[in-house]
Every structure is written in structure tokens, then in C-alpha cells.
Design a protein that fits this description.
Blueprint (H helix, E strand, L loop, with lengths): L11 E14 L2 E14 L3 E5 L6 H8 L7 E6 L2 E2 L5 H8 L2 E4 L11 H11 L4 H14 L15 H13 L5 E5 L7 H18 L2 E5 L3 H7 L2 E6 L2 E7 H6 L4 H7 L16 E9 L7 H9 L2 E12 L2 E11 L2 H13 L3 E6 L2
Length: 347
């Protein structure tokens, strides 16, 4: 399937500048977004993570102009959606496709009719809409279900239909709000693979709002952390996930916070350490190596090995016992191999 993108676009598809949005509630005024700045480069998958109430859903709604920001600029493909209305806004919003957690499919319409809906609303004929809908349904692997109804599909199939609908008008940006939270792990993997194809084969930019760290690890190029209506951290996915700087990111990514960088004091005989591995060193037997070389005992309390897109990483909590000199040597050796070492608490 060919994605008919416009000629030479800017490097950033999305640029949010000082975006603010508040609501009046029975409990008083709530500042949902408090001066959000964020850029999303073309052809990337940008994750946005945060706890409930951090402003994620409001951010998506302002970006799609389902909500009018109180202040700031919402640039998509160079157009400031915050100041547009009428036909100009409708035209600019065609650059954006949306995928929701709950699918938002019309139960009384067929799969093909659901997919063609954005084209119908834009004035396309029924024949044109069906032709394009069948094209995109073939691409997502659901052409044979074109005349089925949403109630006849599995959850994963309904989400693929929703993705097809988001792509049917050939947008520049695909907004996905918790697209896998209602799916089982196997179906989640299928949907994530499809979103990866959207980026790699169609060249689209994707903004993924989620609370599922596994989805972020598997898919995102960059991650922004939203807390109390502000972006408190943003960077390459592997940096945010493995070396979080903000308290909000550390709370999201781990049930316990590592303390400041630490060197064992002389005479110390035990320490509980957080070890963060990144890249090829993840697969090397470094814990055995320091135990054998420095005569320390390493007891693994918790850990995992995974990967962010193509980069392997490991995260471990260990108790290390030995002489103060041996502990210092072991820590220096690990750091020399690129492992980040932080003290958690005394063992």
C-alpha cells in the first residue's frame, strides 16, 4: 500500500509550546496542563507516560483539537490548531488519525463502513470510501472481515480495524491513547507489531499514550514523562527507562528508588546495590566475574533482562558481601564496564 504523503515536510510533525488547559470541577479549578512543551520528530514513535491524573488524556485531546487549549501553540505539520476553526480546522485535522482504547467503532456499521467513515465525513463517495477501506484493510490483514460487524470480531481485530480507520485518510500523525490496555499479552504483541509497521512501512509519526511500560520498551523511540500537567522528563526511550532523572519516572518504572551514586566506605562488609546494564554487556557474566576476581559474594534479589526496541538491558538488585576493599574493587570494575551502580540500603 502506498502512503501518499505530501512533499518535503518539516523535521518535526508536532510542536507543542506552552500549552495550558484547565477545568472547573465541583472541587474547584484543576490545571490539567501547565505549560507543556514537546516536539515529535517525523517518522518516530513518541511515548507519553504518566500516572492517572497527570494530564495524558487532556494532552491528546488538545493535540487533536477535541479540546480548545487555554493558551499555547499546537503545531501539527506547521499548522497551529489552537487558533484554527471552521473549514480550516477540519482541513488541518485531516493530518491526524486517532486510535482509542475502547475502539469507538459503530456497532451498526460494517468493518469497511467504519474504516471509511473519515472519508465519508470529508465528502468522499461511497465507492471511493469502500475502495480505500478495502486497501487499508488488506494492509492490516482484515480484508476478509470487511462486511462483518464489530460485534463479530475479537478485541484484537477491533483494534486493528480502529488502526485502519485512523490510517484511511493518509494522515501525517497517528495518535494512540492506551491502544493495548484492554488486550491480552499475545494480542498486544500483534497490535504493537502493526504500529511498528505503520512507522517503518508508511513513514508515519506515532504518539503513544500509555501506562504500560512493556509497550514503551517494545515500541518507542523517545519518551516524555508527564506529571501534574507538565513534562518533567523527555529523551531517548532507553535513557528514560534505564536512567530516569525525575521522581515521577522513577515511581513509574520501579517500586523502589535508587539512591545517589555510591562508593563503598572503607571497612564496609555489605551493601545492597542497584545495577543497570545497557547494550552488549548485558549478556556478559559480570556478576560471576566480580565474585571470582574480588572474592565478594553476590546474591541476586531481583532482576530482569529485556530490550528497548533493539537495545538489550538488564536491571538487578543484589546484596554484595566482602571486605571494604573488595567491595570497592567490585564496584569500580562494574562501572568500568559501563554498569551504573547505586546503593539502595544496607544489606
Amino acid at each position: 500500500m502506498v502512503n501518499d504523503q505530501a512533499s518535503t515536510p518539516p523535521a518535526e510533525v508536532v510542536r507543542l509550546e506552552g500549552v495550558r488547559k484547565g477545568y472547573r470541577t465541583p472541587a474547584g479549578w484543576v490545571d490539567a496542563l501547565r505549560g507543556v512543551d514537546l516536539g515529535v520528530a517525523r517518522g518516530t514513535i513518541q511515548g507519553v507516560i504518566g500516572f492517572s491524573g497527570s494530564g495524558k488524556s487532556t494532552l491528546v485531546r488538545c493535540l487533536a483539537r477535541l479540546e480548545q487549549p487555554d493558551a499555547g501553540r499546537v503545531l501539527v505539520g506547521g499548522d497551529d490548531l489552537a487558533v484554527l476553526d471552521g473549514d480550516a480546522l477540519r482541513e488541518a485535522r485531516r493530518k491526524i488519525g486517532m486510535v482509542f482504547q475502547s475502539y469507538n467503532l459503530l456497532r451498526s456499521a460494517t468493518v469497511a463502513e467504519n474504516v471509511a467513515l473519515p472519508l465519508s465525513l470529508a465528502g468522499a463517495s461511497a465507492g471511493e470510501g469502500r475502495k480505500r477501506a478495502l486497501e487499508i484493510l488488506r494492509w492490516v490483514g482484515l480484508a476478509e472481515r470487511a462486511d462483518s460487524y464489530p460485534g463479530q470480531l475479537s478485541g484484537g481485530q477491533r483494534q486493528r480495524v480502529a488502526i485502519a480507520r485512523g490510517l484511511v485518510a493518509r494522515p501525517e500523525l497517528l495518535l494512540t491513547d492506551e491502544p493495548t490496555s484492554a488486550l491480552d499479552p499475545e494480542t498486544t504483541a500483534t497490535v504493537l507489531d502493526l504500529l511498528r509497521r505503520v512507522r517503518d512501512e508508511l513513514g508515519l509519526t506515532i504518539l503513544l499514550v500509555t501506562h504500560e511500560m512493556s509497550s514503551v520498551r517494545a515500541l518507542c523511540d523517545r519518551v516524555a514523562v508527564l506529571d501534574a500537567g507538565q513534562v518533567v522528563e523527555e529523551g531517548a526511550a532507553r535513557d528514560v527507562l534505564l536512567r530516569p532523572r525525575s521522581a515521577a519516572a522513577r515511581r513509574l518504572l520501579s517500586p523502589r528508588e535508587a539512591g545517589p551514586a555510591w562508593s563503598p566506605p572503607a571497612g564496609s562488609s555489605a551493601a545492597r546495590l542497584s545495577l543497570q546494564f545497557l547494550g552488549p554487556v548485558t549478556g556478559e557474566p559480570l556478576l560471576w566475574e566480580v565474585g571470582h576476581r574480588f572474592g565478594v559474594t553476590v546474591n541476586v534479589l531481583a532482576g530482569e533482562i529485556d530490550r528497548t526496541t533493539a537495545t538489550p538491558y538488564g536491571s538487578f538488585v543484589v546484596d554484595v558481601t566482602g571486605s571494604g576493599e573488595a567491595l570497592a574493587g567490585a564496584v569500580d570494575h562494574l562501572r568500568g564496564r559501563g554498569v551504573e551502580v547505586s546503593r539502595l540500603e544496607a544489606a
